[in-house]
């Protein structure tokens, strides 16, 4: 595929990018270039420093420019479903960023810079569907973080700093090879136990009134949820929905 061209041969120029900018309901300038077959980050985008939101998801981008931090006004950045193996250190300059989606890429722990800890305004961070087994310890500074997606990675242990993030209410660690310490006095790590047998996940809207009543009377066998929450612009085509522990806790009250 020619440099700077999309799946249909459309060259991503500054003019095209400007025409793709739309105002969001809350008055922000969003540039959407999703699913265009882009393989190389269009350098012309770096001239659009007044863009508040940037969506480059579902492309084939392998590398971000070292000066990605020049988007000083960015508040929302979606790069899910690309081929990224690392993130530039300059991403730490995006101190106003509140939403960052890097899910469904090829990121390794070595490719995550310590400067992620500078993004203290982040409220939602999605790192699911990568090849991560650790996170930068500097992320303990992300005091504003509320949602964290780490599903479909290689984590054996939970990141130690998670307990220090007081505003963190939603965490997805599904499908990781998590281990936990057995009380054998030696601190040995064992494989996490399998889900309880005869346990099913059922949405309340799928049940008739009789079945719903029966389920509520037998919660030890069937768990019901009033809603399964999916965050905006997460790769819903390629990844499972987020299971929110908070929702489960409130439902089982």
TrEMBL record:
It comes from Lates calcarifer. The keyword Repeat applies. Residues 67-170 form the Disease resistance R13L4/SHOC-2-like LRR domain. InterPro entries: Leu-rich_rpt (IPR001611), Leu-rich_rpt_typical-subtyp (IPR003591), LRR_dom_sf (IPR032675), LRR_domain-containing (IPR050216), LRR_R13L4/SHOC2-like (IPR055414). It comes from the Eukaryota. One of its GO terms (cellular component) is cytoplasm. SMART domains: LRR_BAC (SM00364), LRR_TYP (SM00369). This is Leucine rich repeat containing 18. It holds the Pfam family LRR_14. The gene is LRRC18. The keyword Repeat applies. Keywords: Leucine-rich repeat, Repeat.
